[in-house]
Design goal:
By secondary structure, the protein is an alpha/beta fold. It is built from 15 helices and 14 strands.
Length: 386
């Protein structure tokens, strides 16, 4: 074991303020979490619409389990595909306005399966510098030439498009997970069309939150039909787990044959696919519109309160509100002070974000109350000033 220097590596992480550990929760009750006899108001979850513990999801899971039991028993290509999986994918395709869709066990699995299945040696992938780790890892796995443009830097993107070889895939998020700002999506679509490239758009933090029926930023900007590959997750606003890729029928057929994270994974539980079908309907309904309004109202209230402390946020209606403190130790101290005051807001540090940009990543839910947000504003102002 000494040859691996594991102890030394752990000591270095502690010394650099980059030590991480798992902190189990005993109970999750909406935005209230409890452990060891204490409770906190959770401002760190991606459960944007407050659906994860909702009665609708609990009922759907119970119904699904009663009808279909537990695990699916095998990978989708062996005998793990159930009619319910197909119905979920049909609902996702209709939701995203594409010919077809394919569901995966996680959002990470979507990226790892899709990108290497579509591009490889001799091709070019062009990524926004702030793309999620799953997109970066998938690009590396593909064997394609990787080029990176500074965040939302359209001039650099066009220069890279002009020089790109082979099949060219532009990759970006719609709402960026650590900054909460939006891609310059209209302009990116224009550029990829101009240069004959394809676009993979990760809408993980926009689906359920933005656009008509919660269909995402591309739908809000009316460019959805010009996006080639719609990637998303069902673990955030949709409240459960899994991911999907929505695209043309031919693309989906190719993924069924080539996406290794799909082919070699046991199918998600049937009862979960059943519950997700219920959630997709809910998100598209009038009730979904009510939840989105509550979310946006809460985000606006939080931004207003924290602006008093000099914190600036993106102008997009995202539910991700980063408070960038820079130094890892300072950010950890602020997170610890908030935890002592009854608020769960973990510190985000390198390598999740660049060195020197450590932050408190506040995420707002439709389930937060005005009183909880008011209390957060007061405590955070005090924490930032001390």
């Amino acid at each position: 074991m000494d040859a691996w220097n594991i102890g030394t590596q752990l000591d270095e992480l502690r010394a650099q303020g980059l030590w991480r550990e798992l902190r189990p929760l005993d109970e999750v009750d909406g935005v209230i979490v409890r452990a060891g006899g204490r409770e906190w108001i959770n401002f760190s979850s991606n459960d944007y619409l407050g659906l994860a513990g909702s009665s609708e999801i609990c009922t759907a899971l119970e119904e699904g389990t009663a009808k279909y039991g537990g695990g699916s028993g095998a990978s989708r290509l062996v005998c793990g595909t159930h009619r319910v999986h197909v119905e979920l994918e049909e609902a996702l395709a209709d939701f995203k306005g594409t010919e077809a869709a394919l569901s995966f066990s996680s959002g990470f699995a979507v990226a790892l399966g899709t990108i290497p299945a579509l591009v490889g040696v001799g091709d070019t992938i062009i990524l926004d510098k702030l793309c999620h780790a799953c997109l970066v890892d998938a690009a590396r796995l593909s064997g394609a030439t990787i080029r990176v443009f500074p965040h939302n830097h359209l001039e650099k993107l066009e220069r890279l498009l002009k020089m790109a070889k082979g099949r060219v895939l532009v990759v970006t998020e719609s709402i960026f997970s650590m900054d909460g700002d939006a891609a310059l999506l209209r302009e990116i679509v224009e550029l990829k069309d101009k240069h004959g490239a394809w676009l993979l758009l990760d809408e993980a933090h926009a689906v359920g939150v933005l656009g008509p029926q919660g269909r995402g930023l591309a739908a809000e900007l009316d460019v959805a039909q010009r996006v080639d590959l719609h990637m998303g997750t069902m673990s955030k606003a949709l409240g459960l787990s899994g991911g999907y890729l929505a695209a043309s029928r031919q693309v989906i057929d190719l993924l069924v044959n080539r996406a290794r994270s799909f082919i070699y994974s046991t199918a998600p539980p049937i009862h979960q696919a059943y519950a997700l079908g219920v959630v997709v309907k809910l998100v598209r309904s009038a009730q979904g519109d009510i939840l989105r309004k509550a979310l946006h109202d809460n985000a606006a209230q939080t931004k207003s309160l924290l602006s008093v402390a000099g914190v600036e946020f993106p102008t997009t209606p995202a539910a991700i509100l980063p408070v960038i403190l820079g130094d890892e130790r300072l950010a950890m101290q602020a997170s610890d002070r908030l935890r002592e005051a009854g608020f769960l807001i973990p510190c985000i540090r390198y390598p999740t974000v660049a060195r020197g940009t450590a932050r408190l990543r506040i995420t707002v839910s439709a389930s937060h109350t005005a009183c909880q947000i008011e209390s957060l504003g007061q405590i955070l102002q005090s924490a930032l000033q001390s």
